Predict the 3D structure of the following.
Amino acid sequence: MWRPVLRRVLYTLPVIWLVVSTVFLLIHFVPGDPIQQMLGEGAAAGDIQAARHAYGLDVPLGQQYLNYWKGVLHGDLGKSLRFNQGVTSLIAARYPFTLQLTLASLFVAILLAIPAGVRSAQRRNRWDDRVLSVVSLFGLSFPNFALGPVLILFFAVKLGWLPVSGSGTIAHLVLPAITMGGALAAILTRMVRTSMLEELGQDYIRTARAKGLTERTVAYRHALRNAMIPIITVLGLQFGALLAGAIVTETIFSWPGIGRLTIQAIGNRDYYLVQGCILAIGLTYVAVNLLTDLLYSAVNPRIRQ
Amino acid sequence: MSTATISLPRLARHNPLAAVGVVLVAVFVFCALFAPWIAPQDPAHIELPNRLQAPSSQHLCGTDELGRDILSRLIWGARISMFVGSSVVMCSLALGLLIGSLAGYYGGRIDRFVNIVLMNAFLSFPGILIAIAFVAFRGPGVFNLVLALSLGGWVGYARLVRAQVLAVREREFVEAARALGAGDLHIITRHILPNIIQPVIVQAAIGMAGAILAEATMSFLGLGVPPPTASWGSMLNDARSHLFDAPHLVLFPAFTVMLAVLAFNFIGDALRDVLDPRSRIEAGL
């Protein structure tokens, strides 16, 4: 039983290698001299030379690449120019916030999508199914950077129920989580609906109904459990999109996560910090995909063979 | 083709959402093409005394923090949105068709490299993150933006094309063409591509919605088209600092982006029903 797990883990190694290599190369995409860009136009030649040496850009490319790998493996991603702090420690400080926000939005999406999708499937092609499908299409089309400000406008500015931005309490988490989870909820609703429709047509559902179980028990205890199997894969894939969405959501709500850090770093031309942030987001994505696949084979014994 | 002869009233009866989508897209394309003539004012014209005005007969959607007419900026924004959106779809489609059909047709080592190394690497990064990384290091601008978004977008088309080519290349008519002495290029462009183009068109229509959304996202983050060019995303970004005193600044661009994305999604869904019904069942929509 461990062989497929091992194989799946081995498959991620080339992906990790590519992610790290691409992120390493990013700094060399900068038009002109990255150090000059970071220090600004007026920097003295001596300072530029010193910075180039400090960042290890004065050695051949191959050597830089090896050094970068050495750094990644030791958790040393260089130093942020503006924050005057190690990139790794900056990211480590912000990472939990992004994780918290992402998990909260995942929770919001599941909370909205499962009842909606189950109901849609149960009432196939009736009015509530139609309404839910239109609502989910709107949810898909309403971009998070538009949803966020609109939510702030109504729930924070007009009604005053929730804080406009910042972090610290559960109340601070509500609007960003809805902003981020909204589109996912829409996608998920459609997925749950289809998957449920498939399960509701199965023989074991007829048996369950024949036993006299309530429709609720049949739907949630019997059908949903099996319907969730394909949905887990989608959730894993969507988690990556969610992480990218965190960049927007954190910017809107001044959430002190890694996404906002990325945008700040881009604005400051703090290239090493940008590199580090993108590497962190990318590796998280790879890790989540791996976990999803493993989880998928754990809950679905059929594909284990 | 029969789809080309469907009239709008008939479409409206048959599939009202698709008709709404067609009308909306027509409006947006019209705005994009004729922006200089239909915009009531110059989108970059600054009028500080009239800043942050609520909608009125003079400024139908009000004015922004520099006193610029929001309606005019929305109309000009359609230009950026449609231009970037269609360029991104065309670039990623071209790249996807090329790489996907090469991998699918030749198979073997090329396919293994493309499929396992190249596609997996690009799929292992969300497209928007690739775009953000690219623009962060290359700098903003329309050209870089299109390039960045295509870089993240091609892999979806390539995967689709590869799978379709794999299925079609073993069919009898391809074998017949090969037996008649047709070259690879001829077989791919004349026999295979016309047979796989329908799901590709569907994907392109839905991809257009995604590209518009991505452009607006990048502009919102300040990584899109540099100011003072009007773009829906950057208008929304500017509007955030005036949530309290001028909420209309948020509402109009937010609504416009939503309509544009929705319109292309409607059309994509309808096209899928007509051209590629099986994928609809598979995708569970």
User: Anything to note?
Assistant: The first strand of chain A starts at residue 79 and ends at 80. Chain A has a mean pLDDT of 80. Chain A is about 80% helix and 0% strand. The beta strands of chain A are 79-80, 85-86.
